[in-house]
């Protein structure tokens, strides 16, 4: 059968964490759940051992028990966070409102599915238990989405491992993986979420080596080879921004420093601005409890020592020369973000004079 790529992509790209749009009043047929588990069981597993077991909870008393465990684990905290963030415009405000809604209504969800796997993770580095179950549970969620039902991947209840085992009669040598509320959705128009573009987070051949285009064969400086260093800074974003701008002003060495998105992105170029040899920038991204700080460098075909060296070299050497240059620059980028982290976290802790 020919696969309809558009539909498959749409289902994969719009299987959201549905919480507020779960239809709590419409029953979900058990056979529909079984059909989706049959689809999900087609997922790969280490050694093809068939170790996944699915607990489908429909009994209102057991659902109420799960809802209580969920509240105890994190639900009450989610409700408090929702109330504290309401109306503040905080980046987590919407997610928290949604998470708190689920915590308040979990017992009313028509079906709650607990995927499990026979065995206990032994911490060995061999392909492990979780590697044989996560992909299957995600298939289950996507299969439901294709049929008009919504799910939310949740793990908070796993903090209550012992009570969960008692409630569901789970044996000791079995690992629950997630708690998935399942319901028909109110409307079916779910959108793609903002995510990092593939080019920004995909490295070629070596960790942290990026390409803005191509890369061609053989790759050239015109393909925009680059590198990136990133880490989390536990300090207010304004403090991080202050140190980033100070660092950029020093590193730009007289070149104009452009605040492309004040508070979020600042950069500079070397060489001819119309045909730069290098473009450097910092990106600040607020995440829960920290700021993710990224420092990027993208090389260009503009005049530079590297461009001259590459132009005079044979094709295989060109690639090696670019890769070696990027590896050296990556170390410098990493040192820069580390120095900024130390300065910003010291500032935030009040330890700097
Ligand atoms: C490992 C994992 C654990 C999660 N745990 C919870 C949870 O306990 N409660 C909850 O409401 N959402 C939970 N989520 C859902 C995420 O909050 C959600 O995926 C994220 O906000 C992005 O939203 P989206 O999936 O709609 O793009 C979890 C997701 C993952 C992958």
Instruction: Please identify which CATH superfamily of the largest domain we are dealing with.
Output: NADH Oxidase
Please state the structural category.
Answer: alpha+beta
- SSE arrangement, N to C: HHEHHEHEHEEHEEHEEEEHH
CATH topology of the largest domain: NADH Oxidase
Quick tags:
single chain; 353 residues; alpha+beta; NADH Oxidase; Alpha-D-Glucose-1,6-Bisphosphate, Chain A, domain 4; 2 domains; 6-stranded antiparallel beta sheet; 5-stranded antiparallel beta sheet; 10 helices; binds flavin mononucleotide
Write the layout of secondary structure elements.
Elements: H1 5-13, H2 30-40, E1 52-57, H3 60-85, H4 93-105, E2 111-118, H5 134-146, E3 149-151, H6 161-168, E4 174-176, E5 180-184, H7 198-201, E6 209-211, E7 225-233, H8 237-252, E8 258-261, E9 265-272, E10 275-287, E11 290-299, H9 305-311, H10 315-349
Helix pairs in contact: 2-5, 3-4, 3-6, 8-10, 9-10
Verbal overview:
With 353 residues, this protein is an alpha+beta fold. It has 2 domains: 5-184, 3-Layer(aba) Sandwich (NADH Oxidase), CATH 3.40.109; 198-349, START domain (Alpha-D-Glucose-1,6-Bisphosphate, Chain A, domain 4, 2-Layer Sandwich), CATH 3.30.530. 40% of the residues lie in helices and 20% in strands. Helix 2 packs across helix 5 (134-146), helix 3 packs antiparallel against helix 4 (93-105) and helix 9 runs antiparallel to helix 10. The structure holds flavin mononucleotide. Flavin mononucleotide binds at residues 16-17, 95, 99, 102, 152-156, 193.
């Amino acid at each position: 059968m020919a696969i309809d790529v558009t539909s498959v992509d749409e289902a994969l790209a719009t299987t959201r964490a549905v919480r507020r749009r779960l239809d709590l009043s419409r029953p979900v047929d058990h056979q529909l759940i079984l059909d989706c588990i049959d689809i999900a069981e087609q997922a790969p597993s280490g050694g093809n051992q068939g170790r996944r077991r699915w607990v489908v909870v429909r009994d209102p008393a057991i659902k109420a028990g799960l809802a209580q465990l969920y509240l105890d684990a994190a639900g009450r905290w989610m409700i408090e966070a929702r109330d504290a963030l309401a109306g503040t415009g905080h980046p987590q405000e919407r997610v928290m409102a949604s998470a708190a809604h689920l915590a308040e209504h979990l017992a009313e969800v028509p079906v709650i599915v607990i995927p499990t796997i026979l065995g206990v993770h032994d911490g060995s580095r061999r392909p492990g238990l979780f590697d044989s179950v996560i992909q299957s549970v995600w298939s289950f969620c996507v299969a439901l989405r294709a049929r008009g039902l919504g799910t939310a991947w949740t793990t908070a209840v796993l903090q209550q491992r012992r009570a969960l085992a008692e409630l569901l009669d789970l044996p000791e040598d079995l690992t629950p993986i997630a708690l998935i509320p399942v319901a028909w959705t109110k409307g079916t128009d779910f959108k793609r979420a903002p995510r990092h573009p593939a080019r920004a987070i995909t490295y070629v051949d070596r960790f942290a080596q990026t390409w803005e285009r191509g890369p061609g064969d053989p790759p050239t400086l015109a393909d925009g080879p680059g590198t990136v260093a990133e880490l989390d800074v536990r300090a207010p974003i304004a403090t991080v921004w202050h140190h980033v701008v100070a660092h950029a002003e020093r590193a730009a060495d007289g070149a104009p420093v452009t605040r492309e998105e004040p508070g979020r992105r600042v950069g500079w170029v070397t060489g001819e601005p119309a045909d730069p040899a290098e473009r450097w920038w910092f990106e600040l991204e607020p995440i829960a409890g920290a700021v993710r700080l990224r420092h990027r460098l993208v090389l260009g075909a503009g005049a530079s020592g590297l461009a001259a060296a590459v132009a005079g070299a044979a094709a295989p050497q060109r690639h090696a020369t670019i890769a070696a240059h990027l590896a050296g620059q990556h170390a410098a980028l990493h040192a820069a973000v580390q120095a900024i982290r130390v300065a910003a976290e010291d500032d935030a802790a009040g330890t700097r004079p």
